[in-house]
Description:
36% of the residues lie in helices and 18% in strands. It is of the alpha+beta class. It folds into 2 domains: 53-260, Fructose-1,6-Bisphosphatase, subunit A, domain 1 (Fructose-1,6-Bisphosphatase, Chain A, domain 1, 2-Layer Sandwich); 269-397, D-Maltodextrin-Binding Protein, domain 2 (3-Layer(aba) Sandwich). Strand 8, helix 7 and strand 9 form a beta-alpha-beta unit.
Amino acid sequence: xxxxxxxxxxxxxxxxxxxxxxxxxxxxxxxxxxxxxxxxxxxxxxxxxxxxxxxxxxxxxxxxxxxxxxxxxxxxxxxxxxxxxxxxxxxxxxxxxxxxxxxxxxxxxxxxxxxxxxxxxxxxxxxxxxxxxxxxxxxxxxxxxxxxxxxxxxxxxxxxxxxxxxxxxxxxxxxxxxxxxxxxxxxxxxxxxxxxxxxxxxxxxxxxxxxxxxxxxxxxxxxxxxxxxxxxxxxxxxxxxxxxxxxxxxxxxxxxxxxxxxxxxxxxxxxxxxxxxxxxxxxxxxxxxxxxxxxxxxxxxxxxxxxxxxxxxxxxxxxxxxxxxxxxxxxxxxxxxxxxxxxxxxxxxxxxxxxxxxxxxxxxxxxxxxxxxxxxxxxxxxxxxxxxxxxxxxxxxx
Length: 398
């Protein structure tokens, strides 16, 4: 985008073209395997040293605009009499509008590059006659958000433009090329309650997460543990950003300078605190409680919605995040990709319950062993031990 935008707090950077991949010719199997491993290590090191500054700036811009749209919808929701959880129209408008905005901005930023977006929504329901009013509302919100944030030089999007932008999120991802990964509103129930939610955006390159952005409009700028989880009078609105090999930064959505953050250095489980999902249906609170007891954690769990937990943990608000969804549930990559990068670049560790690294290269879903655990380097051995013991204990009781 040109210099005419007023989105100056989120700085731009330099983009470096990725090098071509070497080809392997016929060779003995043992040597081929050894060389393949070496090449993988070289490629990982190359990815870590490669600059994704331009993509990160575009991701921050897109997440910022999506957050502005969602804030407007949530404010309207909370001021209205529509508080029934059965009425999902406001969150539907925000969800689709957020995805349309992010898709539109990213593709416009990189017009000469192949565009792939793995996202939660598609436009099938919006193309029905009975949802025409919702589509019109989404189009108006998207255009208003662009116009009100220094992008009024862009021609207004039509309904078909909005539908097409949403449908660009149908990519399956995979281990090759670059793929954006988006959850347009992570934490929809939190959004409807007026609590925490996040716009979560990441970039995969050759199957690896190389950058992540979390826009958390209701997250306090100071430590979450010193606040009630509901929106308070304190200043709220955080934008987390992380790039492989470059650390994790947080700034206010109003545009304060980015500040580098790091996970807690706490090594004593008795001094640690645990984040878990607000909704019991999203993660087993009983299992989390058993794990905490085995570790000796004394503080009660902090329950909040969305990947805002990853953001809070990355700046040391708490030390542990546990997620153990119901049996049969398959985690989607957009539910964790951005948060994973934000925590990893802040010095944290994110694995499945068995200690395996998360694999984002297999399509739209994560193949996991039981659940996801997140903490700092010092607490991971004790956490892993408590998790394995608790899982065995639960299995033997069934």
